[in-house]
Here is the input.
Amino acid sequence: PTIRELLAAGGKSFSFEFFPPKTETGMRNLWRTIRQLEALRPTFVSVTYGAGGGTRDKTVEIVERIATETTLTPVAHCTAVNHSVAELRHLIGRFAAVGVRNILALRGDPPGDPTGEWVKHPQGVEYAADLVRLIRSAGDFCVGVAAFPHRHPRSPDVESDTRHFVAKCRAGADYAITQMFFRAEDYFRLRDRVAAHGCHVPIIPGIMPVTQLSTIERSEQLSGAPFPPELAARFEAVADDPEAVRRLGIEHAAELCQELLDQGAPGIHFITFNKSTATREVYGLLDTGAHRPAPAPATATA
Ligand code: FAD
Here is the structure.
């Protein structure tokens, strides 16, 4: 099924994001996590696409295995970094060939320094919106895009960020997933800004539970957005007790998810870092309402 169909079927969507590991051990851990999270019957799972190098092929391998060996619906992330249009078409064709019809279209960041200057591949595309159009023209795909509650770090202001986001949706996106954030109001402001432009593409909140203090710093690096100071202070107050930090992180993530769901978010997309425990704990604390487990795809062999 496509994510478009799954979202339209009603009920809340629950999904998990993985990254392609570099090592064999990492790959074994990932598969253990996938099997553990499969039991929750998520709506879909997604696999990120590396900035460059060897993990790019692994994205294709992992989504293929998910499509053929599990009951899960995979979404392949795809970025424009260092790819010509011909290479992007080839990659999209590979996803199709392994049975993947759901692609998250991203521009990606420059490899090495994500905050460095973006340089388009000479025969590539400039913006994610161009990639959305390319994927759409390549076949019958369901396409998702990225959204940024605090605006994209490269956007000069919130207004232009919103306009470009809406244009990206109109280029043919079926849904969006947000960058991680830690206050429900940040999500609702984004949703309201987008709706004010007459765009009603479902925006799924991306959530990353804080499990240790270093996650806070990592979130700022990954998202380019400041961690809320009042929440940082709550974590600092228990800084010398790692178990208390973890507990606070899980409880905070669960409260955030519940508020989002109760106020109309279409679902939750968990950034798992290939581990299942924190995600399962947060999920276990939620009143998931009418979460309809995803139907098993017809091709599933498991
Ligand atoms: P775009 O939508 O192209 O936007 C980039 C910037 O250009 C924004 O500032 C936007 O406002 C501006 N802009 C857009 N259109 C125009 C226009 N016409 N004129 C002027 N300005 C314009 N990265 C990876 O490498 N691999 C992954 O797997 C990955 N997965 C992600 C998943 C999610 C849910 C999210 C939120 C991010 C992910 N990223 C990933 C990171 C993402 O690639 C970067 O944040 C990237 O910098 C932005 O990508 P985008 O698709 O939003 O870009």
